[in-house]
Design goal:
Chains: A mainly alpha (336), B mainly alpha (297), C alpha/beta (326)
Structural class of chain A: mainly alpha
Largest sheet of chain A: none
Shape of chain B: elongated
Shape of chain A: globular
Distance between the termini of chain A: 8 Å
Largest sheet of chain B: none
Strand content of chain A: under 5%
Distance between the termini of chain B: 28 Å
Number of domains of chain B: 1
Helix content of chain B: 55-70%
Radius of gyration of chain B: 24 Å
Number of helices of chain A: 15
Number of strands of chain B: 0
Oligomer: heterotrimer
CATH superfamily of the largest domain in chain A: MetI-like
Number of strands of chain A: 0
CATH class of the largest domain in chain A: Mainly Alpha
């Protein structure tokens, strides 16, 4: 098992280096010299310019700069934000929990609704329920979520007043961040009102961000179940005199989960991409909104670091999914 | 008590006819095709159909509501936006933009992806490793994030947004092509034409490519929906088409603050995106079912 | 009273081209402790018959019968949950493909124990003990260590033994084995067959052995039912059938046995295939492939008629001692 993990992990090294190279080149492809961005419109003396270039290592040959960059990345130095002058890594880590909290809730929502919907649709293949689930999930899959979010705000926040419009917490409350996860932090300090407020703030963003994964999970579950339900071992299970609940819920589902869990894991990338839109609409203080702001403020080191960190997160999650696949599938687990 | 079934005339139908038969069974796919045809006609005839110019500002009717509201009028059927432009005309011209985005993005990414995938599949070895590694790197970034970054590098604008979206989807075509090429390469008919002296270019384009067409056609159809959706998202984030271009995502972004006062300025562009994307997804799904022999019968 | 009594059973599937009767009015009686062989080519309806007995026909199929009773219970009137109490307990089945018939995600021990848990309420140590006992009975060496094995870790023969252990777990009164050896190596086939027959003899259970291999039937069955295109072509005791087959189809099947073809240069074959949904012939279903077919066979469909030792569906049977009344 350990060897399996190490082999899979080592396959990521070239990809990681590639992403690092890509983000390294990113800042150099941007129109305009980063120095000019930094000093703004004001004129600058050639001596100061040379000094800046030296400070940033820009007078070195490109390959040397890249090696320095990798060295920095590996020791946790992702550069400094041009706007706040804070280390990029620190900014990212402060905002990341908000994004994780949102993405986790969205995934939970997608799985809790999508799995049963897909299972029932497969069992009742061809029924009105099946057609309904398939139609809705294709609609969800086609949804421009930035517009979907606006519609939900219009309906539930503006017209009905059920949910807050934006942010993570009512201004009434202030909770010192411990873990950065609002649901946990509010409970840690015992502020139940704040907990409910945080939960309320999560509802709409969760639904919006979870819509596309929900559609994917439902469709994938349905097709995986349909395939498994036609297998010989399902006939064997029925021949044992097991009831449908046991045949479907245990024998079929256990096998169908193998591809479904993989797909759920692979949705994490989609989620982090969708977080850019969702966080922008709901003013959610996470890394997605921060990235867009960094672009608008031409804060390229922040963008560069953020992209590298998100890519690394996606790679780590994909590795985890790969390992989970091995755990779920006995044929893979025992193959070594 | 034996009911005899009449022997069925059993000449196998032409493959295209068979595909069309299966496609027609799928009502969703037919609906998708009808909607797409309608949108295409609207896009082509935008100048003739649209009642107003998409950028003409009618200062006397700012944020006029749609016709079915009490204050609405037939002059602006779907209402006007915050500077008095006719929503319907802007949506019609937006259809033209979206279809153009779809065509350009799919053509561009299909051409590049096809080329890379074929090269990787044909030559194998180090070429394959390098090309596919690069594709893996692109895939390890969330697609919208990658599009945002590319658009940020290239600078905002409709054409740059199309480039950005194209870059994002290239790996899908490349992977698909490579897999199809590798699967076909080991088949006897390819070996036969190679023995018959077909050169690599002929082998690639004339022999193997037509046999990989089915999955690529499906992917390209679904590619339209991705392209339209992502370009609209970039427009919404301010990284795509710039005002006053009547691109649907850009229209949404510029009318955000009127969400409460004039919901129609937000509703219609979104409906347009959703319907178009849904139509392409329906068509793509239908084509996949019709072209995939595994699911037939 | 027979243990299993089926009269005029039909199983129909609706397809795009119309309704297709996979099984068309068959009768089948199995006595307590009897071994009945059902023989026929692929597509003759053997497996569908057994699935109908098990209550495993998918919802696209319709099962109709004049009588369908097991140990005096009318199977047609049972509710689904009552039916499940018989299926897997009193009537059990072994399938053709051991490699795909076991669930790849569960251990062998779990899959055997499941029947015991559901039907007999066993759990804990008793369950484990009984499972090991079953593995021993089906001849699996080192049974304790096999409990936690997954199907993909065992060979096809071993998996078929596991399937048999599952089937006999609750001491069924009737075991249906659907081509239990077809997917296995020739050397293993004999072992599995011996195991099945041994278990049948020791436990006194009835056994329906479905096969396309006349040789297998010759070694094991007391009585044989020959099926063709969803109908019974001939039925009689095994000795009678092998000595004096009446139906030309049975005759052709027997001629195709290698041990009966000694001295011939080529093994005789039956030309053509079993008619499917679209090409059912007029008259006798076997007439296009029958060397003895006459005009009457092409016009009329023969009934299953009794003779001195059994029944055959033929106007002009082989080896007939008395004239068959039309």
């Amino acid at each position: 098992m350990l060897r399996f993990i190490l082999t899979r992990a080592s396959l990521l090294i070239p990809t990681f280096l590639g992403v690092t190279l890509l983000t390294f080149l990113l800042i150099r492809l941007v129109p305009g010299d980063p120095i000019e961005v930094r000093v703004g419109e004001r004129g600058i003396s050639p001596e100061r310019l040379a000094q800046f270039r030296h400070e940033l290592g820009l007078d070195q040959p490109l390959w040397k700069q890249f090696l320095d960059y990798i060295g920095g990345v590996l020791s946790g130095d992702l550069g400094t934000s041009l706007v706040t002058h804070n280390p990029v890594l620190q900014e990212f880590l402060t905002l990341f929990p908000a994004t994780i909290e949102l993405a986790f809730m969205a995934m939970l929502f997608a799985s809790v609704v999508g799995l049963p919907a897909g299972i029932v649709a497969a069992v009742k293949r061809g029924s009105w329920f099946d057609h309904g689930v398939m139609g809705l999930s294709l609609t969800g899959y086609s949804m421009p979520i930035f517009w979907w979010g606006l519609l939900l705000i219009l309906l539930f926040s503006v017209n009905l007043g059920w949910t807050p419009v934006s942010g993570r917490l009512d201004l009434l409350y202030y909770v010192e961040p411990v873990t950065g996860f609002m649901l946990i932090d509010t409970l840690l300090v015992g502020e139940y009102g704040a907990f409910w407020s945080a939960l309320e703030h999560l509802i709409l963003p969760t639904v919006v961000l979870g819509t596309i994964p929900l559609a994917v999970v439902a469709r994938m579950t349905r097709s995986a179940m349909l395939e498994v339900l036609g297998e010989d071992y399902i006939r064997t299970a029925r021949a044992k005199g097991l009831n449908s609940r046991r045949v479907v819920g245990l024998h079929a589902l256990r096998n169908a989960l193998i591809p479904v869990v993989t797909v759920i894991g692979l949705q994490v990338g989609t989620l982090l991409g969708g977080a850019i839109l969702t966080e922008t609409i709901f003013s959610w203080p996470g890394v997605g909104k921060w990235l867009i702001e960094s672009i608008n403020r031409r804060d390229y080191p922040a963008l560069q670091g953020g992209v590298l960190l998100i890519a690394s997160t996606v790679m780590a999650v994909n590795l985890l999914v790969d390992l989970l696949y091995g755990v779920l599938n006995p044929r893979i687990r025992h193959a070594r | 008590m034996t009911t005899d079934v009449q022997p069925v005339a059993s000449r196998p139908p032409h493959p295209l006819a068979e595909t069309w038969y299966h496609f027609r069974q799928n009502h969703g796919a037919v609906l998708g095709l009808v909607v797409i045809t309608a949108i295409t006609i609207v896009a082509i005839l935008a100048d003739v159909i649209a009642p107003h110019s998409p950028i003409a500002q009618y200062r006397d009717s700012i944020l006029a509501p749609p016709v079915w509201h009490d204050a609405g009028s037939w002059r602006f059927i779907l209402g006007t936006d915050d500077i008095g432009r006719d929503m319907l005309s802007r949506l019609i011209h937006g259809a033209r933009l979206s279809m153009m985005i779809g065509v350009i993005v799919v053509t561009l990414s299909l051409a590049v992806g096809l080329g890379l995938g074929m090269v990787a599949g044909f030559f194998g070895g180090i070429t394959d490793v390098l090309v596919m590694r690069f594709m893996d790197i692109l895939l390890s970034l969330p697609s919208l994030l990658l599009a945002v970054v590319v658009a940020a590098i290239l600078g905002p604008g409709l054409f740059n947004a199309m480039l950005a979206v194209s870059v994002v989807v290239v790996p899908h075509y490349a992977r698909l092509t490579r897999a199809a090429v590798m699967a076909e390469m080991s088949k006897d008919y390819v070996i036969a034409s190679r023995v018959a002296g077909a050169g690599p270019l002929r082998l690639m384009l004339v022999v193997v490519l037509p046999n990989c067409a089915a999955p690529l056609i499906v992917q390209a159809t679904l590619g339209f929906s991705t392209a339209i959706l992502d370009a609209a998202a970039l427009g919404f984030l301010g990284l795509g088409a710039q005002p006053p271009t009547p691109e649907w995502g850009t229209m949404l972004a510029s009318s955000l603050q009127f969400l409460q006062r004039a919901p129609w300025v937000v509703t219609w562009p979104g409906v347009a995106i959703l319907v178009t994307v849904l139509a392409f997804n329906l068509l793509g799904d239908g084509l996949r079912d019709a072209l995939d022999p595994k699911l037939k019968r | 009273m027979p243990l299993l009594d089926i009269q005029n059973l039909s199983v129909a599937f609706s397809t795009r081209a119309g309704t297709f009767r996979a099984v068309d009015g068959i009768d089948l009686q199995v006595d307590e402790g009897e071994v009945v062989g059902i023989v026929g080519e692929s597509g003759s309806g053997k497996s569908v018959t057994s699935l109908a007995v098990m209550g495993l026909i998918p919802s696209a199929g319709t099962v109709i019968a004049d009588r369908m009773s097991f140990a005096g219970t009318d199977l047609r009137t049972l509710s689904r949950s009552q039916r499940r109490r018989i299926t897997g307990k009193d009537v059990a089945m072994v399938f053709q493909e051991p490699m795909t018939s076991l669930n790849p995600c569960f251990t062998v021990g779990f899959q055997i124990g499941e029947s015991l848990k559901v039907h007999e309420g066993l759990s804990g140590r008793a369950l484990r003990h009984r499972t090991i006992e079953l593995l021993e009975q089906v001849g699996i060496p080192a049974p304790e260590s096999r409990l936690s094995a997954f199907p993909h870790q065992l060979s096809g023969g071993m998996n078929q033994r596991v399937m048999i252990a599952i089937a006999i777990a609750c001491n069924p009164r009737l075991l249906i084995a659907d081509e239990p050896t077809t997917a296995l190596d020739v050397t293993i086939q004999k072992q599995i067959l011996d195991l099945l027959v041994g278990l049948q003899r020791d436990r006194g259970m009835a056994l329906i052995l479905i096969t396309h291999d006349m040789g297998v039937v010759a070694e094991t069955a007391h009585r044989v039912v020959v099926m063709y295109a969803g109908q019974v072509a001939e039925t009689r005791s095994a000795t009678e059938l092998f000595e004096r087959p009446r139906h030309p189809y049975t005759g052709a099947l027997l001629d195709a046995l290698p041990e009966r073809a000694l001295g011939r240069r080529r093994l005789p074959t039956i030309p053509g295939v079993v008619p499917g949904i679209a090409d059912r012939p007029q008259g006798c279903l076997f007439n296009p492939r029958c060397p003895r077919a006459q005009d009457r066979c092409r016009a009329e469909r023969p009934a299953l008629l009794a003779d001195d030792a059994g029944r055959a569906r033929c106007f002009y049977p082989l080896n007939s001692q008395s004239e068959v009344t039309a």
